[in-house]
Amino acid sequence: MFKAFRLIWAVWFLILFCLVFLVLYLPFRILLSNKKWYPYAHKLRKFWAVCVLYPSGLFPSVTFESKPDPKKVYLFCSNHFSYLDIIITNLMLPNYFNFMAKDQLGKIPVFGIFFRTIDISVNRENQRESHQAFIAAAERLKEGASVLIFPEGGIRKNVPPMAPFKNGLFRLAIENQVPIVPITILDNWKRLPGGGIDNGLLPGKMRMIVHREVITVGLNISQKDELKEKVFGIIDTCFKTYHPQFAD
Question: Is 100 helix (H, G, I), strand (E, B) or coil?
């Protein structure tokens, strides 16, 4: 019976998600046709998130250890256990930013419009294409847009815990001397997980912790691994504080 409820809820969420998107598709197409209008498309995605989350019984909240300055450029770095992570970060962060994620998202019919315009798709299986994606990310930073990267490289079936972080974000931060803002997403793995209905599909709270920025000014590329371990530790420690069953 409980499993049936979860399936019904998942179907309702999917229908609402798609229906609201279809209503907003034409405004998205217009706003994404000109790079100058991308910030307005970003705000429209926030409206889309509100229209989908609350009627689905999903209640996002954010706690700021230190609120990011909307006028500054950052690299946002988050754990990634659910596709809901994209929605909650887009909704709750005050900054304009572009996502950087796997290129499969850009191949999704209709929905892939974002990863062909405002966001950056990366093919991690192809070294040359991956390098080009990080060059594009550096250009966005120079243009004044923050970038959000999930450095685990995708959503695994069995989460939590976090997978080891990949290097790209930390190399990008050091090369561009851009601060990193770690983010811990606490509950999405129970809401809409990557591992199927046995691991989640439940409405409820969606908490997000935005940590203090990690300064990269003065660091050199030889300190990349040290920076990676520091940011991983901030997110991992926070998650395990709220979910001690996953502590070592």
Answer: strand
What are the sequence ranges of the domains in the chain? 58-246
- Alpha carbons 45 and 115: distance in angstroms, whole number: 13
- Rounded Cα gap, residues 10 and 107, in angstroms: 23
For tokens 């000109």, the residue is 34
Angle between helices 84-92 and 38-53 (to 10 degrees): 120
- For the chain, state the CA radius of gyration: 18
Is the separation of the CB atoms in 179 and 214 below 8 Å?
yes
Is the bond leading into 160 cis (omega within 30 degrees of zero)? Answer: yes
For 36-73, the pLDDT digits (tens) are: 999 999 999 999 999 999 999 999 999 999 999 999 99
Q: Do residues 201 and 7 make contact, with C-beta atoms less than 8 angstroms apart? A: yes
Among residues 106, 104, 122, the alpha carbon closest in space to that of 114 is found at: 106
119-162 pLDDT, tens digit per residue, is 998 887 777 888 899 999 999 999 999 999 999 988 887 788 99
* Tokens of residue 149, six digits: 């990267």
Q: Residue 111 — very low, low, confident or very high, per pLDDT cuts 50/70/90?
A: confident
Residue 155: phi and psi, rounded to 5, are -105, 120
* The architecture CATH gives domain 58-246: 3-Layer(aba) Sandwich (3.40)
